[in-house]
Amino acid sequence: MYCRNCGQQISDDAYVCPMCGVKTKDEPDKNPNDHSVVLGLIALIVGIIIPLVAWICGGIGLSHASKNNNQAGKTLCIIGIIVGTIMFFVYLGQTL
Ligand SMILES: [Zn+2]
Fold it and tell me: Rounded to the nearest whole angstrom, what is the distance from the C-alpha of residue 17 to the centroid of ligand 1?
């Protein structure tokens, strides 16, 4: 891509232009429809008790996060899903 300030060609993933130091992008807009962080937290907390909730909330949260490029939300949801899956097997082991 090209720097919008000085017009130099710079790396696509450069956060600031190495030539002039100006930010290459505006801060990403916070999307009000992005509930991935909240969903990820629900997945994590409730998922420990009810793994199904972790999968549902984590799954919905993941789609929100990827739509909005929300790394924090994505990470939270993935952790929630993993925790839910682990707990599922823990409970499964207890009932057997
Ligand atoms: Zn520049």
Answer: 5
